[in-house]
Write a structure and sequence with these properties.
Shape of chain B: globular
CATH superfamily of chain B: Glutaredoxin
Helix content of chain B: 25-40%
CATH architecture of chain B: 3-Layer(aba) Sandwich
Strand order of the largest sheet of chain B: 2-1-3-4
Number of domains of chain A: 2
Number of strands of chain B: 4
CATH class of chain B: Alpha Beta
Shape of chain A: elongated
Oligomer: heterodimer
Number of helices of chain A: 10
Number of domains of chain B: 1
Largest sheet of chain B: 4 strands, mixed
Structural class of chain A: alpha+beta
Structural class of chain B: alpha+beta
Distance between the termini of chain A: 35 Å
CATH class of the largest domain in chain A: Alpha Beta
Strand content of chain B: 15-25%
Largest sheet of chain A: 6 strands, antiparallel
Strand content of chain A: 25-35%
Chain lengths: 391, 86
């Protein structure tokens, strides 16, 4: 029974040298009612915008067909027929890896011409038996279908050939880094950091692939994706003073009672917790900037930040409207979100009167609205399980 | 030689009302104060909701709150403390 486990999904991508968009696409969808996560990695033949459109079409179609439990061979035929065919190679313009993970039963991986995925179990790559399906209409394209039961701490790593062929033609790798090189690197990283998150491992794999290239630039579009099946990591976020001051003690004690990582967002909130739990707060020198206040440390917590400005910036980062720059309170918070699976917000709703001063030079958003935005982005974009409770 | 401690609030209200600027205080200190001042930051001094004080941004200088703090006002206060005319 794997119902209590969580699937952590991460991906990292780099376009071919000289291109501005990546010709690979990765899409994931969570089907909570079925306790199922479906991910599709597609590589559009060629590079640039055209490849990106073809890969996106492939990934989107794959996701729809598998979510609807369509039979895989007819679905693959439709996908191949919907895409334009390469005049020279006479094959349709995309390859894919579909990972259909049912948390309480079996996982199925369907591959068409992408490098075979790697399953890492107990720190070692595991051979997974597969069967092959061939469509009578497309005899040159072979679908590989693998089915297996995921075990806690398993990782599925899928990547496009830009990764496995990295360094092609260099003295070090005449024939590229190869899948075996990727597997060896993954085992080494996991041995060094057994609980490394899916996102970090995907980023490390991409960086390592780039370092295999003679000039450090991608010779082909590169995408690395990691699915990590793990015990859920919990994160508690306290933000805002309770509406009823009589509940301050109960609120502050949540910090000590919580079995996971703990964050406080808000100066007044931090003061309440520090007063009740008798803790010191130390602001980290040089962690602030002209646009965002510094963050602080308090024993028993993983991060203490200012409230509204930091939360607003965090929402913008999660919604993809801002690129994370240097490390600051908001990027540190996003990092903690990424590394957690079950995220619980407890939001105090007492209004800070000073925020209502009409002479403030900026509009301060209402806390509960920002938290709702953050919660939605965590659910929809990072596939986290999120709960929000107001106090 | 005694160092005078300035603590700058970086709570939300103080930050938007000007403490973002106060973070550069060290760059504005005149030579005679440079070695006499230690600058610290607080996550929130908790003064903005206290009607007894004036307005954000708040700092404390040797523990004494100062409201509506500006870099010139902080330097003036520090100058008096250092010269013993406070």
């Amino acid at each position: 029974m794997n119902g209590a486990l969580f699937l952590d999904v991460g991906q990292a991508q780099c376009p071919k040298k000289g291109e501005r968009v990546c010709g690979d696409a990765f899409r994931s969808r969570k089907l909570p009612a079925e306790n199922r996560v479906i991910s599709v990695l597609a590589d559009g033949l060629g590079s640039g915008l055209k490849a990106n459109v073809l890969a996106t079409m492939t990934a989107t179609m794959g996701l729809k067909f598998v979510s609807a439990d369509a039979q895989i061979l007819p679905a693959a035929e439709i996908m191949m027929e919907a895409l334009p065919v390469c005049r020279v190679r006479k094959i349709s313009y995309a390859t894919f890896t579909i990972i259909d993970c049912r948390m309480e039963s079996r996982t199925r991986v369907i591959e068409l011409d992408n490098p075979p995925f790697i399953l890492i179990r107990k720190g070692e790559p595991v051979d997974v038996p597969h069967r092959e399906l061939v469509s009578p209409k497309h005899r040159d394209r072979v679908l590989r279908v693998s089915e297996f039961e995921m075990q806690p701490e398993d990782r599925i790593v899928a990547f496009t050939d830009g990764i496995s062929q990295a360094g092609l033609g260099t003295d070090r790798h005449h024939l590229g880094w190869k899948r075996a090189g990727v597997a060896e690197f993954l085992c080494r990283r996991i041995a060094a950091a057994p609980t490394v998150s899916a996102q970090h491992l995907a980023e490390q794999l991409l960086r390592e692939a780039l370092s295999q290239e003679a000039d450090g630039c991608a010779g082909d579009d590169m995408t690395a994706t990691v699915l990590y099946f793990r015990q859920p990591r919990r994160l508690l976020v306290l933000s805002g003073p309770p509406y009823d001051q009589a509940r301050d003690t109960e609120y502050a004690r949540l910090i000590d009672e919580f079995p996971g990582r703990r964050v406080i967002c808000g100066g007044t909130t931090a003061n309440i917790v520090a007063r009740i739990l008798h803790r010191e707060i130390e602001t980290v020198i040089d962690s602030g900037s002209r646009t965002l206040p510094a963050f602080s440390r308090m024993p028993g917590t993983d991060l203490v930040t200012e409230g509204i400005l930091t939360l607003t910036r965090t929402a913008q980062l999660l919604e993809g409207d801002l690129q994370p720059g240097e490390r600051n309170a908001a990027t540190s918070l996003v990092e903690l979100f990424r590394e957690s699976d079950l995220i619980e917000f407890v939001v105090g709703t007492r209004i800070n009167e000073a925020h209502q001063d009409p002479t403030l030079p900026v509009d301060l958003e209402i806390r509960r609205n920002i938290i709702r935005r953050i919660a939605a982005a965590l659910r929809d974009r990072l596939f986290k399980e999120v709960s929000v409770r107001f106090i | 030689m005694k160092k005078y401690i300035v603590c700058i609030c970086s709570g939300t209200t103080c930050f938007v009302m000007g403490s973002a600027e106060l973070q550069t205080l060290a760059d504005h200190l005149p030579p005679e104060l440079k070695d006499r001042v230690e600058i610290r930051f607080s996550h929130c001094l908790g003064l903005c909701n206290d009607r007894n004080f004036s307005r954000a941004p708040f700092v404390t200088i040797e523990g004494e709150p100062m409201g509506g703090a500006t870099i010139p006002a902080i330097i003036e206060r520090l100058g008096k403390l250092v010269s013993g005319n406070a």
